[in-house]
């Protein structure tokens, strides 16, 4: 894991590994985000995580899989890309 600092504040956190993992509880409804990928990059200024390589993100009952996933933490928006792997998987629970 690498943490980049600027003037005493975290700017970016990069986690690399076979199973890098990110978890965050969202306080407004006590649901959580569970993310896994080969590389996870948290961009503080954008309030965004970038998942690269066999990316997986679960939020509530919804699940995303792809080669690359961008997740806007503040807005709760997900962008998934298949890269060369040929597809993105999305399972949505409309009750969430």
List the helices and strands and how they pair.
Layout: E1 2-6, E2 9-26, E3 31-43, E4 48-59, E5 62-72, E6 77-81, E7 89-91
Antiparallel strand pairs: 1-2, 2-3, 3-4, 4-5, 5-6, 5-7
Structure description:
By secondary structure, the protein is mostly beta strands. The protein is 0% helix and 70% strand. It is globular, with a radius of gyration of 13 Å. It has strands spanning 2-6, 9-26, 31-43, 48-59, 62-72, 77-81, 89-91. Strands 1, 2, 3, 4, 5, 6 and 7 form a seven-stranded antiparallel sheet that branches.
Shape: globular
What kind of oligomer do you see? single chain
CATH architectural designation: Sandwich
Helix fraction, binned, reads under 10%
CATH top level? Mainly Beta
Question: In summary, what is this structure?
Answer:
With 96 residues, this protein is mainly β. 0% of the residues lie in helices and 70% in strands.
List keywords for this structure.
96 residues; mainly beta; lipopolysaccharide transport protein A fold; 7-stranded antiparallel β-sheet; 7 strands; globular; single chain; 0% helix
């Amino acid at each position: 894991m690498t943490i980049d600092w600027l003037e005493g504040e975290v700017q970016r956190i990069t986690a690399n590994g076979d199973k890098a993992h990110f978890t965050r509880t969202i306080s407004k409804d006590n649901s959580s985000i569970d993310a896994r990928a080969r590389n996870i990059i948290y961009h503080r200024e954008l309030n965004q995580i970038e998942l690269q390589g066999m990316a997986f993100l679960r939020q509530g009952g919804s699940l995303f899989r792809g080669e690359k996933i961008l997740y806007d933490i503040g807005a709760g928006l997900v962008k998934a890309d298949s890269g060369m792997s040929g597809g993105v998987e999305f399972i949505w629970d409309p009750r969430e």
